[in-house]
Amino acid sequence: MKTSIATVSLSGDLKDKLGAIAKAGFDGVEIFENDFLVFDESPRQVGRMVRDHGLEITLFQPFRDFEGMPEPLRGRTFDRAERKFDLMQEMGTDLVLVCSNVSSAAIGGLDRAAADFHELGERAARRGLKVGYEALAWGRHINDHRDAWEIVRRADHPNVGLILDSFHTLSRRIDVNSIRSIPKEKIFIIQLADAPLIDMDLLYWSRHFRNMPGEGDLPVLDFMKAVAATGYDGYLSLEIFNDQFRGGNANAIAVDGRRSLVYLGDQVRRAEPDSALAVPAMPDRAEVQGIEFIEFATSEDETESLVALLHSLGFSLSGRHKSKRVSRYSQGGINILVNADEEGFVYSSYAMHGTSAYAIALKVADAGRAFERALTLEAQSFEQDVPSGELNIPAIRGIGGGLIYLVDDVSELSRIWDVDFLPEAEATSPQEAGLTAIDHLAQTMNSEEMLTAILFYTSIFRMRKTPVIDVIDPAGIVRSQVVENETGTLRITLNGASNRRTLAGHFLAENFGPSVQHVAFATGDIFATASALRANGFRALPISANYYDDVETRFGLASDFVDRMKAENILYDRDEHGEFFQLYSPNYGEGFFFEIVERRSYSGYGSNNAIFRIASQKRQIRPDGLPAAS
Ligand SMILES: O=C(O)c1ccc(O)c(O)c1
Ligand SMILES: [Mg+2]
Question: Fewest C-beta atoms under 10 Å: which of 132, 337, 431, 445?
Fold first, then answer.
């Protein structure tokens, strides 16, 4: 499978872009005319630069407002085309993308356009070049790939073909099955882009909101399946106009791009095993059976306060690592590791971020296969020295640079607690609080990193994304989106902060980067848990009395029931399936916290309650609120 990306998709100058594109493993690049025009090198040197990066120029684009022009404009468009052909030959590419005419001067008519393309094909053929026609979704006369194809068909020239761009087809909801009957040799290249479903002007949507396949809501896979049905085996080329990407980190965006194409190819291969696209074989997405452990990086000094909080939550010491300064605390099916090692990755993580949940271990059916898939999808592996007699647990770098360990029940990894740990208990253990499992994790990041996170999780693991929710912090909006699996054994809420006065933004700034901001534990009886916690000295996050007045009327609850929740600072929510109860720990450090939830057939996350929780947490961090914008 050959992959390409348009220079317009990334930030920086042409050199930066090419560097990022080559590093991410693409084979080709579409040179966007503006990126060339503003660059201070000759076309010949640009061509050499591209090839020095090991890349091929898949096409030069766009050539605008060509077909259907009346004279004397028509003559001028051909002169213009000849100039671009000169440039392409110097640069070393044989394909130009002509997008459908948007000029008010353009005259419609399929035959007129076909005649123009036939002539352009003749001119291109003289130089050994090819012309690809793309229907812009907002083209004046041609805005549908079926019409563009009809023009290409009537132009009847071997050097004239069709360019399909998933955005233009899918944004207009054009039936993708119309692609299946197009002869593959007439499809000169496939451009791919996804986009979030937002009701807006097509041009504006296209120029600002496109994103990588799998990051948005368009049925790009259906589009690709139809393309694959033609037998097409050429380049898949990303063309992503996105404001955020233009200002983002070119290397990171390029990696996301490669990942999106490999993942898309993998899905096509599974749906259409006979497709001609040579997609690398890889294991299927891993089903996560649960979180085997969460590991905190901390220091000897800070261990005490962290362990005190864990004790108050009913966790007891259950083991110590054989060779590292790692203690295991357990309750129900939950394992929390406290790592105060002063060397290696954990120590640099602590030095950088302070005490934080820097690693998680996911239990999958086959850790080796999950690891293999992750690496095929451009995840970075993590390796460390392992003393003999201890397990070498496969691990990848997660979102924000933390670690994701992979364990399973079918290899020696299943014996992790016996092999790497020695059992140990405390003289006096706290009272268990009925916590049974990790319900979910919340990762806080910059809002620009959300799409990266979504693609990372959904492409490697069998997880789906839910729609974005706006969480209202008194100081701004935090964008929140969930990735979760079908069975609920892995749920991650992603919170994207866009300013540092929000609680999420404050956490991000104080921790020097994205990390897990809260861990939620499940209980089967939140009232029993609350009282056990109190006996352990746990002090729940206080919730405003006003909240309870509102909840009582909003949900029509009995007042004595509301009084019980109020006494324990338990929050309440309900959806069409059931009820939800939440209880929060005080902040630990600059905004990290634990949550306890009881689900009664409820599948959400209580996002309506977030504003109350956040307001209270902010009062705790600084009674007079976080510093105002400076
Ligand atoms: O927004 C545009 O003008 C534009 C130009 C070239 C393309 O290939 C495209 O998909 C859009
Ligand atoms: Mg396009």
Answer: 431
Same domain, 189 and 249: yes
Its ipTM equals: 0.99
For residues 118 and 195, state if they share a domain: yes
Which of 271, 301, 333 finishes a domain? 271
Output the known binding site for a divalent metal cation. 134, 165, 191, 239
Query: What is the domain range of residue 454?
Result: 435-618
- pTM here? 0.95
Tell which of 390, 423, 456 closes a domain.
423
Determine the pLDDT at residue 69. 98
Query: What's the mean per-residue pLDDT of the chain?
Result: 95
Q: How far is CA 359 from the centre of its chain?
A: 19
> How large is the C-alpha radius of gyration of the chain?
28
Annotated binding site for Mg(2+): 440, 518, 595
What's the Cα-to-Cα distance from 63 to each of 101, 153, 349, 350, 426, rounded to whole Å?
A: 9, 20, 49, 52, 74
Residue at 625 is within a domain = no
Whether residue 120 is found in the same domain as residue 252:
yes
Express each pLDDT in 445-482 by its tens digit.
999 999 999 999 999 999 999 999 998 888 888 999 99
Give the integer Cα–Cα distance in Å for 459 and 270: 14
Q: What is the pLDDT of residues 109-134, one digit of tens each?
A: 999 999 999 999 999 999 999 999 99
Claim to verify: residue 468 and residue 595 sit in the same structural domain: yes
Nearest to 580 by CA among 620, 552, 609, 559: 609
Q: Are residues 229 and 81 in the same domain?
A: yes
**Maximum Cα interatomic distance, the chain, rounded to a whole number of Å:** 94
Pick from 9, 66, 2, 3: nearest CA to 32: 9
Q: So what's the pLDDT on residue 273? A: 87
Q: How far is CA 582 from CA 181, 347, 406, 480, 594, in A?
A: 55, 33, 29, 18, 11
pLDDT digits (tens, 9 = 90+) for 474-497: 888 899 999 999 999 999 999 999
What's the whole-number mean pLDDT along residues 280-308? 96
Question: From CA 134, how far away is CA 619, in angstroms rounded?
Answer: 56
Digit-coded pLDDT (tens) for 318-361: 999 999 999 999 999 999 999 999 999 999 999 999 999 999 99
Mutate to test the pocket of ligand 1, among 99, 190, 192, 223 (most ligand atoms within 8 A of CB): 99
Instruction: Please indicate, yes or no, if residue 279 is contained in any of the structural domains.
Output: no
Regarding whether 132 and 40 lie in a shared domain, the answer is yes
In this prediction, residue 622 carries a pLDDT of 64
Residue 288 half-sphere exposure toward CB, CA atoms < 13 A = 30
Closest C-alpha to 396, from 411, 408, 383: 383
Ligand 1 atom closest to the Cα of residue 203 is 1
CATH of the domain at 578: 3.10.180.10
Kindly state whether residues 209 and 335 are assigned to the same domain: no
At 504, the amino acid letter reads: A
Note the residue count of the chain.
Answer: 630
Q: Where does ligand 1 bind, in terms of residues with CB under 6 Å? A: 61-62, 97, 99, 134, 136, 165, 191, 206-207, 239
Residues 230 and 332 reside in one and the same domain: no
Looking from the CA of residue 165, the nearest atom of ligand 1 is: 10
pLDDT surpassing 70 at residue 590 = yes
Q: Identify whether 630 is part of a domain.
A: no
Question: What tokens does 266 get?
Answer: 């993998």
Residue from 625, 593, 589, 8 nearest 305 by CA: 589
The domain tally of the chain equals 3
